[in-house]
C-alpha cells in the first residue's frame, strides 16, 4: 500500500465515527503535515456510507497541533439536497478537539463551465534536475521535485526577490 494510502487509512467505529493514527512518514515540525491531516478528514467523508457525489469544497480549522498517535474523526452529514451534501467534521485526540472542518460534496450535472487555467509552456520533467537534498520536514521526502523557476528556498530568510515557483512534482514512490 502506498504511504499516502497508509497515512489516510481509517477504521469505521460506529455510524459517523472513524479511528486512525498519524503516520511518521508525514512528520512536520510538530506532529503530521497539515495537508495529510486534511486528507484524513476528507477520507472520513469519502468512506461514509451516506456519501452523495464527490467533494467540491473543504474548509479545515486547525484548533491546535495534531500530536503523533491515535485520533478519532466524526464525519456527520448535516444537510442533503438533490445535488449537494454538507458535512461537519471533528478530529479528537485524548478527548480534546484538535481539528474541525466542513466539506461540501455534489453530484455533478451538466452545466455551464468556466475557463480552466492553462498549463505553462515548459520542457518535459526530465529536462530539469531532480533536487536531492535532505528535507527539513519528512513529508517533503514523499515527492520528487524538479524546479523550473524558483523552487524551495534553502534558507528561509526572506532574501528571495520573487515568490514565483514552478516545479514538476510527482510522488517519489509511484501510487
Task: Tell me briefly what this model is.
The protein has 175 residues and is mainly beta. The chain has helices at 3-7, 34-47, and strands at residues 11-14, 17-21, 54-62, 70-80, 84-93, 96-106, 143-149, 166-171. Helix content is 11%, strand content 36%.
Instruction: Strand order, main sheet: write it out.
Output: 1-2-4-5-6-3
Mean pLDDT score: 89
Spans of 5+ residues with little confidence (pLDDT < 50)? none
Counting DSSP E segments of at least 2 residues, the number of strands comes to: 8
Order of helices and strands: HEEHEEEEEE
Rough outline: globular
Q: Given the structure, what is the number of helices?
A: 2
Q: Tell me the major beta sheet.
A: 6 strands, antiparallel
**Helix content range of the residues, please?**
10-25%
User: Strand percentage, roughly?
Assistant: 35-45%
- Give the termini distance in whole angstroms: 8 Å
Overall structural class, as computed from helix and strand content, comes to mainly beta
How much is the radius of gyration in Å?
19 Å
Structure description:
With about 180 residues, this protein is mainly β. The protein is built from 2 helices and 8 strands; from the N terminus they run αββαββββββ. The strands form 2 sheets. Strands 1-2-4-5-6-3 form a 6-stranded antiparallel β-sheet, covered by helices on one side. A two-stranded antiparallel ribbon has the order 7-8. A hairpin with a 2-residue loop joins strand 1 and strand 2 (about 15-20). The longest helix is centred in the first third of the chain and has 14 residues, at about 35-45. It is globular. The chain starts with a helix and ends with a strand. The relative contact order is 0.17. The model has no long low-confidence stretch (mean pLDDT about 90).
